[in-house]
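Anyone have tokens for CRISPR-associated endoribonuclease Cas2? Sequence:
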Amino acid sequence: MARALYLVAYDVCQPRRLARVSRYFHSFRVAGQKSVPEIWVTPAELATIQTDLRRLLDAAEDRLQLIALDPRMRPRCMGQAATFNHGNTHFCVT
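Reply: yep, here.
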């Protein structure tokens, strides 16, 4: 299965849930910032993530967005920002 790059952005209100969500994405993270990781996943992994997050988040208080990044677009990073580098394709323009 082909992997795709996603940007995850989350705002979790309760510190314990926030820690759980942060730990959850640790194994998928390839780049990004603390609460805005980039993940490189298969469609099956993405489906599992969506199911797991329904259990981890409080829909009344928390927010999370999974954004598919178009591999044809070249991201622009500033300062210390860095993004995922897969093989010979570097996904960041400084």
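Residues 88-94 have pLDDT under 50 and may be disordered.
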